[in-house]
Write a structure and sequence with these properties.
Number of domains: 2
Largest sheet: 7 strands, mixed
Helix content: 25-40%
Strand content: 5-15%
Radius of gyration: 22 Å
Number of helices: 14
Distance between the termini: 39 Å
Structural class: alpha/beta
CATH topology of the largest domain: Aspartate Aminotransferase, domain 2
CATH architecture of the largest domain: 3-Layer(aba) Sandwich
Number of strands: 13
CATH superfamily of the largest domain: Type I PLP-dependent aspartate aminotransferase-like (Major domain)
Shape: globular
Order of helices and strands: HEHHEHEHEHEHEEEHHHHHEEHEEEH
CATH class of the largest domain: Alpha Beta
């Protein structure tokens, strides 16, 4: 008897997450064959020797006996209260532990807050380039991701007036990623103020992804969106994974501020969804209070001489010295650079073909720009987590490949096809 194929759900047809897609699978194949791959496609601090602070590990050990059972669906009280205190210290008012939800990383919370909000056909404004989980989660929950441009020539900062023209009667929410992944842009106060007023006038929920909140360089100022949004609902999403180098702990939080009373039914829906998954990782939640209330070791990494600062400088210097690469300015925040390739020098350049060739020929894995829902084909994202020596080696390999392109441009019919963009 012949076997009938098992088809996946049609709801996944337009869902992409290329950061861990075909290129990453090919990188694993090459590693199994014995090749050493420099994987720069994801921001995973532990993979580059950046350890979680020891105090956080000790906090979990000391509370191990408290982690055997389920906790409240919103999270343990000490963790939620620590998040409240952080928000209050930043000038956010009117928040209690009842408005804090702890999740298995921000990734789970993105799905929960969208599932509780969206009906089929509802629209969510998402930046382009974006962190693609936002677009994927909108689609998975029946919505439509409407991408507002954050153009390279504008330092990847959005234009509020351009964004306003994309709002329709079906628009429910505005996603802001600041400091930004993948570009490293840190949005100016005036832009954030304009976005806040726009969301308030249009009755949009603001989802502010601030997972890189303390990763800013050279005097760039991070402005918490919750300090600006007053006349609509604001959800601030953050967690332990980046600033505290604890990706594997899978602890994130969503804090609701602004018009929470009018959003009572929506918050109850999130509470219901939180209950259905029982609770998030209890043991790792015991690290939250120590992390937020203790010494902020991230400052040692983002100032001159620190690992992230110097790696960022190495990327900028390498791009500045390249015949082919372009970056308007050094990233102001986060742990990435969204590097452009000069199409005047390489007219046939294709980011997916480049990423595949770089992997196969030079054993370096990067994320092509189209992974982040942009309409152009001449960018790639690289993480600044490796040390300077590794990054210098990486950019030497990149320059070799691009020089080979210039000497013998790849045939157009060999370009890797791009999957359809999200509807």
């Amino acid at each position: 008897m012949s076997e009938s194929p098992i088809r996946p759900s049609e709801s996944l047809r337009h869902v992409r997450y290329e950061i861990r897609g075909r290129l990453a699978h090919r990188a694993h194949e090459l590693e199994r064959q014995g090749y050493e791959i420099i994987s720069l496609n994801i921001g995973n601090p532990g993979a580059f020797g950046l350890r979680t602070p020891e105090t956080m590990r000790l906090a979990m050990i000391e509370n191990l006996a408290e982690a055997d059972g389920y906790c409240h669906q919103k999270g343990i009280f000490p963790a939620r209260e620590a998040v409240v205190m952080q928000q209050q210290a930043r000038g956010v008012t009117g928040v209690t532990a009842e408005e804090v939800f702890i999740g298995n990383g921000v990734s789970e919370l993105i799905n929960l807050v969208l599932r509780a909000l969206l009906d089929d056909g509802d629209e969510v404004l998402v930046p382009s380039p974006d962190y693609p989980l936002w677009s994927a989660a909108v689609t998975l929950n029946g919505g439509r991701a409407v991408h507002y441009p954050c153009r390279p020539e504008n330092g990847f900062v959005p234009d509020p007036e351009e964004l306003a023209r994309l709002i329709t009667p079906r628009t429910r929410a505005l996603v802001i990623i600041n400091p930004n992944n993948p570009t490293g842009a840190v949005y100016p106060r005036a832009v954030l103020e304009a976005l806040a007023r726009l969301a308030e006038r249009s009755g949009l929920v603001v989802f502010s992804d601030e997972i890189y909140d303390q990763m800013v360089y050279d005097g760039a100022e991070f402005i918490p969106m919750a300090t600006l949004v007053r006349e609509t609902l604001c959800a601030t999403l953050s967690g332990l994974s980046k600033v505290y180098r604890a990706c594997g702990y899978r602890v994130g939080w969503a804090v609701f501020s602004g018009q929470t009373r009018a959003a009572a039914d929506y918050l109850a829906a999130i509470d219901l969804l939180s209950s259905l998954r029982l609770c998030s990782n209890v043991l790792a939640q015991w690290a939250v209070q120590t992390a937020l209330g203790g010494y902020q070791s991230i400052r040692d990494l983002i100032t001159p001489g620190g690992r992230l600062y110097e790696s960022r400088r190495t990327i900028h210097d390498a791009v500045s010295g390249s015949r082919f690469l372009r970056l308007k300015e050094a990233p102001q925040g986060a742990m990435y650079a969204f590097v452009g390739v000069d199409t005047a020098e390489l007219p046939a350049f294709d980011d997916q073909r480049f990423a595949l060739d770089l992997l196969e020929q030079k054993h370096v894995l990067v994320a092509p720009g189209v992974s982040f829902n942009v309409p152009y084909r001449n960018h790639f994202r690289i993480t600044s987590l490796p040390d300077s020596a590794t990054l210098q080696d990486v950019f030497a390999r990149i320059e070799d490949l691009l020089s080979a392109y210039a000497a013998a441009p790849p045939a157009v019919d060999n370009v890797v096809p791009v999957p359809k963009r999200l509807a």
